[in-house]
């Protein structure tokens, strides 16, 4: 499978930007005339600075011992191989020469150390092919760090000599701390001044500081070794090699942890790191792609073909995304594109349609064409400084909005009603209640009887969700569904409802009164594909026959992704679970879908039933739906029956069952038991029934 991974230059460049293995600044490495020009300027500046230092302290340099010149030479040599931490900025380059220049600053002062450090930085800059400005940036950081070290050493009169005690050791640690604070403090100030993001993962920064501290504290060891004999000083190169291996291994681990094993694309961690690393002036857009009907490919052709399809999708996306953007596989059949140069929602939509077109061409596997499409949610970074988690959450919400509306692309809008702070707070409370699963969480089920019109008998109930919020009071099912459905909380809510309803069905069956209960499921539940497994497990664990459970789906859920929904409800139908199409007449489902789907009944929306006694148009719609259901062999159930006249009109039209306040309001299971014991069927006069 590795051979099939995308090798395109865009993905590789962006991944290398997030976690390089060898050299920083690979996107700015100079070649040809620019490199020669940078080399001349860098060395010219180094000679000028060192010349000024020599002229300013000619006598002092002449009196320096051989140990100084040996350590200076080693500092220049080791900087031919600088150490790199896993990102691309100059502030993350660790020069091994600091081991020697820190020791020189402690022993012979700032000027002597700076003269060596300037030459060493020039060597490192030329070796890494950096522009002059980056080399100057690096030189400035180390100059300030050495100045801070020298200031601390002078303040406490620290000098490394033959008599070195515990106080001197602690003061040396203080000097090293001053070096680290000065260098990285300056780097952060400069990054902020040029509008670069300075936040870094703590583990990555920890490796950098640990390696820097190890190099600095090797300095006093080098000085002590020099007093024993200069021949032992080069032995410190072995310790420097060990530090280099530590830094390199940390970088390789960081790189590996940010790569998707199947496709070779950056993964979710890489996405978060890329969002954090963007400049403040950039406007970001995150496009979340969820493949449609991917489960069908896995079921029909096998998971190996599904994996090959994911690799090919990754290859196509990486091929059409420019180098300055990032393609990511989030997991499963979800991909994301982080666009760094967008001009608002119109520009993001253009990118989304471009990605959709790239997936429109069929994929060929062993001579078999496989068509793939994707629902795309777009989230725009409204303010600088946002993180990847927020963008992902918003893009996921937009993606589910697109699925529910039957659109391919949707943009997250913070001003929409379902994104209001009030609803977000309600969603957080609901998530907490579902995860705690406490007996007093306020989440309960009410049941409304469904009555056979011809006989007046109770043929089933519909389970309706209620939540008594500790502060808001009773929250109705419509509000709960609007809040939860675009989010992963919907899965938790459905699991809770299915569990409670199945447990109640088992109790009724044990009490000798088996009854069918209908449960509403959302588009998100049907798209997940595993709802059939969850239902099967519940029925088996409670010993409930499948024909006692009925699931209701809406037209919007059906049309958001008809093929995926068809696979799910077909499996449920084979298990013996009846499927009802809820709110029929209010959506836009076609007769073709009605003919193909394994439905047991259609429910006529209450908006038509309530008006059929006074509005001829509503009455005509209700009669037409009943006739259509009869022709297709489906039950017709009317919702919102609130008076006897409507009941009689439904009977004349041949409707099979009805529910509404005319017979009973929704009630808890305990009240339903009392109601059933007192209920006597209301039989209509024979004249009110249809002649058939």
TrEMBL record:
The chain crosses the membrane at residues 38-55, 98-126, 138-158, 170-195, 215-240. Residues 423-680 form the EAL domain. It comes from the Bacteria. Residues 282-414 form the GGDEF domain. Keywords: Membrane, Transmembrane, Transmembrane helix. SMART domains: EAL, GGDEF. This is Diguanylate cyclase (GGDEF) domain-containing protein. The lineage of its organism: Bacteria, Bacillati, Actinomycetota, Actinomycetes, Micromonosporales.
